[in-house]
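Tokenised fold entry reproduced for everyone:
>
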Amino acid sequence: MKTKNNMLEGNPVKSIITFAFPIMLSSLLQYNYTLVDNIIVGRYVSTNALAAVGSVAPVNSFVIGAALGLTSGFTIPVSHGFGAGDSKKVTRFAGNSISLALIIGVIIAVVAHTLSTPLLRLIGTPSEIIDLSSAYVNILYYAVPFQMLSNNFTAISRAVGESKKPLYFYTVSVIINFILDLIFVKSLSLGVEGAAFATLISQAFAALLTGIYVIKFNKNVTIKGKDLKPDLKTSWRQIILGIPVSIQFTVTSVGSMCMQSAVNSFGADVIAGFTAAGRVENLTNLPMSALGVATQTFVGQNYGAKNYSRITSSVKKIFLTDIAVSVLMSGALLLIGPPVVRLFMSEYSESIMFAAKRYLIATAECYSLVAVLFVMRNTLQGLGFTYANMIAGAGEFFGRLSVAFIFTPLIGFDAVCYSAPAAWLLADIPITVIYLFKHRKFKRLARESQIAPSHKSAE
């Protein structure tokens, strides 16, 4: 099996950055689904409509995070098999993951439609926007199976060393989303429902295009019809790997919902400002996130190849690289944040801008904390220790929970602004401890693997 970007040899940091760049651009394009919806809804519908779209973010993350977390675990054995040069293992786990993604995606979509409106009420969504929020999110949930499939196909490609092709397909789907947004929202005046339908259709295209590439054209994965038949033993192993990642996203989202309930108490203008600033923050953390995803692939392939010394020597370099990127992104957040926030408003609002600026400053001050989280979490995930994701998610949950129910009543909106940094810190502490423990183990394995060949040659 061959790949254009060989992570099993050569300069590890260069390999990871090269691999991460298309991932960052793909994530940027995927992020544009929400960003474009927000901008067009905010400019061509109303501030209430923007607040409605923004207020569903924690509920949507709860559902989508649970779904996509599973697919992240499904493809870990694919990277291990690729690193080990085991094409049968690659094919078996890749084919099975596709069937699992579709089946579970449909189940999650059905459950999500039942829970969405009660969850919106639970987090205190203001009465003037709850109908808009419910209408928007319930259309989006029809896209869950498509999102799971496209995410799974993309994860398969990355597991075997291909990060560029998904970029092309997401480019097409984002262009479709933008055109449909303008048609449905601006021209046909379909409001938030139009924005949701545009996203649904474009997600379906993304799933179709990525699926065709993986099944028909990716030379490192030879999936036949028989490989798509679910196998109980294989499915169980993939689900066991995926559940902790899914729980991590779910628990974090519950914390975000608690945080959103605190934000909602400040009214629609603050919700809109918090939403717009959050979109900018999500934009600037894409480089760090992409490096994390690339690190997972790097670690997974080298773990499969038993290159333990390469793993231990490279993670420190990757960690320092991501910290440096976080410092640059802090500056970018402060520089481009306020101008981008204004794109969300049809008319300038002082109260919206005040809320957005406070959030941006608090995040920029603590951005390196999220860089630590991305590197540690994805390294452990690449090794197959997905339970660490669950522990990190619990830390994030307690961080947001304490801010929402203890510090916000005491301090006010400033506490809300520091909710994400508090969550990152409480996730960083346990996951770093776990990594350091595993690091010692892999250094020992690296020494043993070097000693064994020398003994053999001596004989």
About this structure: DSSP finds 18 helices and no strands in the chain. The first helix runs from residue 12 to 44. Residues 453-459 have pLDDT under 50 and may be disordered. The two ends are 33 Å apart (CA to CA).
